[in-house]
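<goal> How does this chain fold?
<sample>
Here is the protein in question

***
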Amino acid sequence: MSETGLLLATTNRGKVREIRRGLRGLPVSVIGLAEALPGLSARERGTSFLANARAKSLFYSKKWQGLTLAEDSGLEIDALGGAPGVRSARFSAPGATDGKNNRKTLRLLRTVPPGERDARFVCAMVLAEDGRIIREIQGQVRGRIGLEPRGRNGFGYDPLFYYPPLRRTFAELRPAEKNAVSHRGRALRKLRAFLAAHLKEADSLSRLRS
């Protein structure tokens, strides 16, 4: 089976690393936006992760010849009414950094006791081709926000997100440990299973036509 190019509609290097790792072994070559379509950007106007992922997958799939995977994910904190939500990447400012976002989160939660800091990470993935959605996948994981950042691995809000079953933050976990339980890891396993079947079927149809 020949390798298929898959455009990953993000410039977030952390997401590219995790998704490449999650799809390793499949006949796909994951290409990020910075490599494939530099300078092209789709605006995110949706009110949900799934809506944003849909919009991005449709937009970029019309610019790319092949499969396009769009992913939108973020953190929802109960005590903040679900914030930062779809604004997770730009929570503190339009050009926010992970550090600024984390500091703002802790500042907003400074009077919230540990037992009331429940949160969840949510991930929505949409696979499209030639302006048509092929598959939609979602994953989530629940935890709580710690009192201070812990750990140096991962990215985004990982240093704040405490996962009770492992008694560590996501930033304290090794990549394999995090991917086994994370929102993106759960979505990726569903995506991997679908892609394996989809690519096999496409290869069989191609052989029949040749």
Summary: The chain has one domain: 4-209. The chain has a mean pLDDT of 91.
